[in-house]
Amino acid sequence: MIPRIVSTPIAPLAIPNSRLAARRVDVDVVAAALPGPGRDRLAAGEVLVVTTGQQPGLFTGPLYTVYKALSAMALAARLERERRAPVVPVFWVAGDDHDFAEANHAWFLDKNGELAQAVLRERAAEAPLLPLAREPCGPEIAGVLRQLDEGTPDSEFKPGVLEWLGKCYRPEATLADAFAQALDALLGPRGLVVLRVHDPRAKRAAAPWVLKGLDVTLPDGYAPVFVEASQGRDRLQRDGDGFVTRRSGERFSRADLTRLARDAPERLSPNVLLRPAVEAALLPTLAYAGGPAELKYLPDAAPLYETLGVIRQAPVPRWSGLLVESRVDKLMERHGLDLAAFDGKPGELEARLVRDELPAETVATLAALRRGIEEHYAALRESAARIDPTLERTVESARNAALSGAQTIEKKLVASVKRSEGETLIRQIARARAAVYPQGQPQERVLTFPSFSIRYGPALVDALEQEVARWAGAS
Q1: pLDDT tens digits for 271-301?
Q2: What global pTM score does this model have?
Q3: What are 326's strand-pairing partners?
Q4: CB 130 within 8 A of CB 118
């Protein structure tokens, strides 16, 4: 039985009403997409697209990567029905990204339902910041796959999941290509186009638009363009009639960068603000399905669309949600909890629930004791004040000491329950928190999709696709 799927909307969904005209996509851009039914539609003639994207991650990265792709698919289906024109979902694999520390690991739930991390390797601090499109998985990938195998529970679906990941995440494959192939194997047959914009053909098509970004200086003083220099991918800052890299201090004239765009376009790439504008130049994009951070910064890209002379696509929220397993549901039902209960400080919920495990008569007796202390000491304070006002504080101190004594008894009773029955409950709460709010963060931002597909198989993808389609009004 698959987990219960709970939608957690990022923002209200507003469907764009752009009158953007359909057009043909450049053959070099189409060629950079992985083969499949989606690419066939992209190449078939005049189309519109809905896009989303993400930097590569190990084992498809966090859950929200899959949610982004499903969101683009559902929105494309709805817009195609409403526009009565082909609308193709495209996932933009940001292989130019150089954040290896973000891509080198995956979090999953182990056999005991506890949080576990698989790490490929670390990048040396002095190493060049290579794009992930040039960072191979390397021999370490075998150990990471083995860790996932040994750490997760056995199931009828596990061999298929490991085979899927093993075919994509190979030692000789780059992290960007492995990620693209894994996402394509998962959702390509359902119509998603996985676009490898780090492909040389796509880089050639994008290069003229990236060069136009050199005409813009952002508020931080840098151009929205990266160049791969001696220290890896590096920001460019205008310096007189040329540009200088932020880290290595290398100087490039405009003519140098124009030659790179022609002869080595893989060395040039847009920053996070220029990227959506380049995307809109290469693809007839109606909408971009983004997460909370993207929806905040995408409006800042408006001047870049003007510089490139392209129509801005509408940013729309992606689908967001939680997978709630039956063991978590049972725990919540047993203790009268909701999902928000797991989103507090570690220890708070455990302490409250252990206290709730005290026998009812003990709780009632302690409550009666506190009330009695308050009532009797209040009467004593009034009587003492009439006799000698200076004794009022003495009575209050005695009352506080009595209440403290009652609290000490309660703490000892709770500790005793914790030793006998509470340890099991505390473990259950910790595992439930790891499943829904791992490390105090939303589940979708930490756990990787294979963590659940090993347990639930292809039916989970079917259920998620249906849920996201309902959210988008596409079903």
Answers
A1: 999 999 999 999 999 999 999 999 998 889 9
A2: 0.86
A3: none
A4: no
